[in-house]
Amino acid sequence: MPGRCSVKSAVLRGAEAIPVDVEIAVTSGLPAFNVVGMVDAAVQESRERVRVALKTAGFAMPGDRVLVNLAPSSIRKAGSGFDFAIAVGLLVATGQINPEFVRDALFVGELSLEGVVRPIKGMLAYALCARDLGYALSCSIDADDVVPIEGLRQKGVHSLADLREGRFLPIGTPQVPLCESPLDYKEVSGNEVAKRALQIAAAGSHGLLMMGPPGSGKTMLAARLPTILPPLDEDEILQVALIHSIAGENVSKVLEGQRPFRAPHHSATAPGLIGGGSPVRPGEMSLAHLGILFLDELPEFKAGVLQQMRQPLEQGYVNISRADGNVTFPSRFMFIAASNPCPCGYYGDPDRECTCTAKQVNDYQNRIGGPLMDRIDLHIDVKRIPPGDVLNPEGGTTSEALREGVMLGREYASWRKSQEGELHTTQDVIASCHLNEDDTRFFERMARANRMSGRSIVRTLSVARTVADIAQRKHVCKEDLCEALAFRIRDGVG
Hints:
Layout: E1 3-13, E2 16-27, E3 32-36, H1 41-56, E4 65-71, H2 83-93, E5 105-107, E6 110-111, E7 117-118, H3 123-133, E8 136-140, E9 153-157, H4 192-204, E10 208-211, H5 218-223, H6 234-246, H7 252-255, E11 261-262, H8 270-274, E12 275-276, E13 281-282, H9 284-287, E14 292-295, H10 303-307, H11 310-315, E15 317-322, E16 325-330, E17 334-339, H12 358-366, H13 370-374, E18 378-381, H14 387-391, H15 399-420, H16 426-433, H17 437-449, H18 454-470, H19 478-488
Parallel strand pairs: 3-4, 5-8, 8-9, 10-17, 10-18, 11-14, 14-17
Antiparallel strand pairs: 1-2, 2-4, 6-7, 12-13, 15-16
Helix pairs in contact: 1-2, 4-15, 4-18, 15-18, 16-18, 18-19
């Protein structure tokens, strides 16, 4: 039963899905089933899945020669997401279902041997692709990362058997996350200076390095940072959910507006942190987009991995080069890091003697690298809390109080930028501070005395600008500069 059909599908390429035409030709000749169009092994294996799934669902597999072409052939096709489109195309080409079912629809999904349509990674990217094309998205009803998108029509399918009557169902809703005990900064005794630094970092999306001995509370402070950040807005939710969907991560918390908090282990590889692999997958830096990337025990990360972070920190995106083209993932995040001051952890601790030599201390801190340190806006020392404060906490600054300052700073900065414009260049940052002559001379003396680089000067001014925003001041004053310098120039352990 010769016939032809073309069905629309798509393939993931970085942070987007690219349309692919699945062309089916059933012709007379010796029985064969071939798939062409620069496909990988997973796509080739779809022949056997489709063959068995069609028979199980009660359809007939044509005994003629079948050729499937995935166009354009210049793009590499990977994964099992073409199963559904190939099966639907075969059914239309052989006259077993109504051709109207495939009109203006994009089909994505893997098939089980029982004919059940399964969701695959990146369903949200496919949904956006279908919307942009003006097509309906047809996929598994269990695709829980397809969020309601304005202008997107949905045609959920449980199994191939549903196509016999053209029975389409709503696509599944995201899973409800498990309840978690809320964190709060009031649980962290003391460390008020560190809390202030984290408030400034949250208000201006600045990077922060905490250095201190074991047990000083560095990890506790970092883990509670999401509690003082504003929730994601609707546009940001879609951006973050898209990255998590492509990586196969649960998106339920993102859909509630929670900013991502990623804390990879120090054994993470470059592809795991930056992104990569085959097919290319987003790394932790992209999964932290519009959220927080926390690297605990920073010097324990491989030096080569850390140095690859420099460019994404500056640009806000990761660009991965491959032989068949470049792949780009967004990666605008708050970089929070924690480190011991030395291998034993007690250099600079007044209560416990350090057993490391001066060379060991220098070598350990130099593992981070000067270029990366220069890109971190705030550097603070975190001291161990006295036992009395731990056993009898008096209730320090709460997350609610810190969040108020963060929201004030962000709102004032948004208003200021609407009047003066965004800060794109070094001159924009300097001009936004509105420094008078005395404060300019003071800051110049401090920068010269501490041998600050040009990048360090600009980043310190940016922190001072954030401090003034929290206080809702248009002009950055000497007090703001001093606080920014105090958080830039560490004292005691470095």
